[in-house]
Amino acid sequence: MIEASGLTKAYGASLALDGVDAALAPGEALALLGPNGAGKTTLLRILATGLRPTAGRAAVLGYDVVREREAIRARIAVIAAASHLYGELTAAENLRFTARMRGAPAHDGEIGKVLEEVGLDGARDVRVRAFSGGMQRRLALAKVLLFHPSLVFLDEPYLALDREAGAMLDRILLAVKGRGGGAVIAAHQLGRAYAVCDRFAILVDGRVAWEGRKDGMTLAGLREAYETAVEGNRR
Q1: Cα 53 to Cα 46: distance, rounded to the nearest angstrom
Q2: For each of the chain's 235 residues, which pLDDT tens digit applies?
Q3: Residues 7, 65, 208, CA angle at the centre, nearest 5°?
Q4: 132-169 as b/e, with b when 16 or more CB fall inside 10 Å?
């Protein structure tokens, strides 16, 4: 689903990413871990076509992230701090507008169903500018339920989510993987990442300091790998 090699992103003389490789197979979720400024969000944005790399190559779902961005965007969903919601539109209008933009108009019944699933049925006709951060994240989850993307990209997705919404997100990600899709999650919370992810990449100063699979690894083992990678690979 993802094949990337040598991804680099420079801002002047500063490197946000420095020759990063990444891979993801169908049915897998990849956690991007690391301290603030490690390059997690930069890598995620490049793979989700929101940012162009300075060097290197990446293909997502078989499409080049630079030359074929629209083909990728039609097949993915992104949940980030800025979740691409329109404050002047209601929850239902946001979903309806996004569906039209994706060329897959949604019926009111479908929209109502996913809003109910994420606990926003009572806010269907409320303008999103009045939503809390947690409600905005729930609406972003509704997009995943409505559009059945092949890949989901998530940047710190558990922030502002209560326990119920966090469990809902876990179920959604497991369902995406279960149908042969995938996910890339940039996260600080190792426990959350461990619960839903199959592969882990720890970034430090724009480089992959450690990578591994969940097979046979405990959460304690992942924490130990994280601490060793971060402390041992700082420039």
Answers
A1: 6
A2: 999 999 999 999 899 999 999 999 999 999 999 999 999 999 999 999 999 999 999 999 999 999 999 999 989 988 876 567 888 999 999 999 888 877 777 888 999 999 998 999 999 999 999 998 888 888 988 988 888 889 999 998 887 778 888 888 898 899 899 999 999 999 988 998 999 999 999 999 999 999 999 998 999 999 999 999 998 765 5
A3: 25
A4: eeebbbbbbbbbbbbbebbbbbbbbbbeebeeebbebb
Say which residue the tokens 């009111």 belong to.
108
Alpha helix locations (H) across 49-178?
Answer: 69-73, 91-101, 108-117, 133-147, 163-178
Which residues touch 199 (CB under 8 Å, ≥6 apart)? 24, 28, 29, 30, 31, 211, 212, 213, 214
State the DSSP code for 126.
S
> In this structure, what are the phi and psi dihedrals at residue 185, rounded to the nearest 5 degrees?
-125, 120
Going by DSSP bridges, is the β-strand pair 199-204/2-11 parallel, antiparallel, or unpaired?
unpaired
